[in-house]
Amino acid sequence: VGHSLGGLLALRAVMEHPTSVNAAVFINAPVRGIEKHILYGPAIEAARKLGADESVIALASKLFEDLFALWNDKSYQKRIDEFSQGFVASGKKLIVVTDENDQIVPTKSTLLKGATVIRVKGMTELNIFQHPLTLALAALKAHGEATEHPKVASAVGQELGKSLAVPLGKF
């Protein structure tokens, strides 16, 4: 199970060790990278105003740039499409949880071909007319809401139970 950047790292681990994994769950994970968007600048500004160390800001900026590059990398997109389709075709399970209100990692950045998709709507509605700093902080808070959404645990459990349950007579 991986949320956000942890989901991207989990995907890489699954791709490197597919025989060791039967199922993977990605929650608001930018597995396709992200398209550069309006909140990038305000997020960096928010970090500065909150007193973040410049080395942390530089690291975050580099991370954003890497995610933007993944979004535009056609060979990467093809590789993850082929992997995810093959993984699922082999009888294994990929589950993508995506929050349709997430402004940090939009739904289109989270989708994997062949994966089961669980769509939720977070509780935080963003007001684009807010000050950019306020908007960026609200977006960061909203980004984590899917991990606590009441629908997520039961839906993931149902999906995993369907694919991984072993009949008692098979033990």
Question: How does this model look, in words?
Answer:
It is a single chain. The radius of gyration is 17 Å and the shape is globular. The relative contact order is 0.18. Helix 2 (40-49) packs antiparallel against helix 3 and helix 2 crosses helix 5 (132-143). It has helices at residues 5-16, 40-49, 54-72, 74-89, 132-143, 150-164, and strands at 2-3, 23-27, 93-99, 116-120. Helix 1 (5-16) links the parallel strand 1 (2-3) and strand 2 (23-27). The protein has 171 residues and is α/β, with parallel strands linked by helices. Strands 1-2-3-4 form a four-stranded parallel beta sheet, sandwiched between helices.
Topology:
Elements: E1 2-3, H1 5-16, E2 23-27, H2 40-49, H3 54-72, H4 74-89, E3 93-99, E4 116-120, H5 132-143, H6 150-164
Parallel strand pairs: 1-2, 2-3, 3-4
Helix pairs in contact: 2-3, 2-5
Average pLDDT figure: 82
Radius of gyration, CA atoms, in whole angstroms: 17 Å
Structural class: alpha/beta
Q: N- to C-terminal separation?
A: 26 Å
Q: Enumerate how many helices there are, as a single number.
A: 6
Low-confidence regions: 163-171
Keywords:
171 residues, alpha/beta, four-stranded parallel β-sheet, 4 strands, 49% helix, globular, disordered C terminus
What's the quick description here?
It contains 6 helices and 4 strands; from the N terminus they run βαβαααββαα. It is of the alpha/beta class and 171 residues long.
